[in-house]
Every structure is written in structure tokens, then in C-alpha cells.
Amino acid sequence: LDSRHIKKPMISPATENMHNQPFLIVAGGAASGKTTVCDMIIQQLHDQRVVLVNQDSFYHKLTEEELARVHEYNFDHPDAFDTEKLLDSIDNLRHGRAVDIPKYDFKSYKLDVFPVRRVNPSDVIILEGILIFHDPRVRELMNMKIFVDTDADVRLARRITRDTVGKSRDIGAVLDQYSKFVKPAFDDFILPTKKYADIIIPRGGDNHVAIDLIVQHIRTKLGQHDLCKIYPNLYVIQSTFQI
Ligand code: C5P
Predict the structure, then answer these.
(1) Is position 242 within any domain?
(2) Domain for residue 243, yes or no?
């Protein structure tokens, strides 16, 4: 067999790229149930290595002055996040390097650096955050973009419970923050990014059909991924070869 006739078309440039790259998915939408959606995806992919990275871990550290007037700080504006650091962490994970990611403490408004959360490179990386579709450089890295779309009143009701019960905040302050920052930022920065989503999930975690379809798609992609891992030098023979 003449080796000139052995070609390598089976692995397209895109699949070749996937050979040792994780499959990245994103969940967008504020207080919409995206954590529930992510948890359900992770649960169904229990036999895969999946990590969840939250955009909250990339909030800028507040200065003493900002901390003293924290009720005037806009946590829903794109500038509240250190996107360069987020990009750096994703880049490391994509290239198989573990990263240390702090946990964000909503009560103290601080990033808990200790104990460090070591995130290892995985087959699937889920990025979750309200403004994760905002920066085009982050969007371009993603294999699948999901926007969790839930009614504004449902989001507000959930937020009130979460912030008063979970974060021990005063209801007046929660409503004030909502009308001053959360709602305007949702309308100006979050909702306009819905158009970038590949999949829009109405009703969040209640939408089992959507989650099943997403998991099926990831499994199909991981199957191709595994094939490339098992047969890194997989060649196909050109159909019109000469002996
Ligand atoms: O968990 P989720 O992604 O919904 O968190 C984002 C929300 O957390 C934002 O709407 C922001 O207003 C709120 N937030 C807050 N206090 C902080 C940081 C973020 O209420 N210290």
C-alpha cells in the first residue's frame, strides 16, 4: 500500500483540537436557577470528570472604602469581575494545568483564599455566572452556551428568600439593591447576551427534557473526544487508492 494514499481526514481540524481539550459549557442568567441546572447536569454526568467554576470567584477584591459603602457597590456590572483572571484560569484548565480558585463569601463580601479550592483539568468544565456571556473572549472559548431563562418575578421572589434567609440580609436592602442595580444591569447587560446562547432553557431546573438533551449532547461530544484519546493516530484510507 502506497503511504501517499493514506490520508488523515477522519479527524477534522475541530475534532483534532478537541483531542486533549475539555468540553466547555456555560450557564447564564441571574438568580434563574442556573446552579440547579448545573447541579443536574453534573449529577447526570456522574461517570465523567466535571468541574464547576463560578464567576463569583472572580469578583474584584473590594477596597476598604468600597467595603464601608458596600450598599452603593454594583455587583451586577461587568466591571465588578476580574475577567482577565477568569480567562487566565480557563486557559490553564484548557491546557491541562490545575488552578487554585478562591471561594466567594457573600456575607463578608470577600474572596476566601484559604482553604484554596484546587480545580483539576477535567473532561467537562462548566462555567456559571450572571455575566459570563458578556466578554467575547470568554464566549469564544465555549463549546456550548446555555442561558437559563426564568420570569423576573420568580427570580425576585427567589432572591428575596435567598438573601434574607441564606445571607441574613434586610429585606429593605435587598429590594433597594434590586431596583438600583440588579434589574437595570439585567436589562442592560445580561438580557442582551441571551442572543449568544445555543440553548435557552425556560423554567430552569424544572425543565428535565432540556437537561436530558444537553447531557445527551455532551455525551456524544465526549464520545468523539474519547475516540481521539484512544486512537490519537487514527488514519483512514482514501477510498480511491492504488496498490
Ligand atoms: O449566584 P448568582 O450568580 O445569582 O449571584 C449573582 C448575584 O449576587 C448578583 O445579582 C449580585 O447582585 C449578587 N451579589 C450580592 N452580594 C455580593 C456579590 C454578589 O448580592 N457580595
Answers:
(1) no
(2) no
Q: What is the DSSP string of 148-208?
A: EE--HHHHHHHHHHIIIIIS---HHHHHHHIIIIIHHHIIIIIGGGGGG-SEEEETGGG-H
Range of the domain at 217: 3-237
Residue 106 CA, ligand 1 centroid: distance in Å? 8
**Is residue 109 in contact with ligand 1, taking CB distance under 6 Å?**
yes
ipTM of the complex: 0.98
pLDDT in tens, 17-39: 444 578 989 988 777 899 999 99
pLDDT, residue 183, reads: 96
pLDDT in tens, 188-214: 999 999 999 999 999 888 899 999 999
Radius of gyration of the chain (CA): 21
| Structural domain total, the chain | 1
CB of 130 closer than 6 angstroms to any ligand 1 atom:
yes
The grid coordinates listed for 124 are 467537562
Which is the closest atom of ligand 1 to the Cα of 177?
A: 12
Alpha carbon nearest to ligand 1 atom 17, residue: 106
- CATH code, domain carrying 228: 3.40.50.300
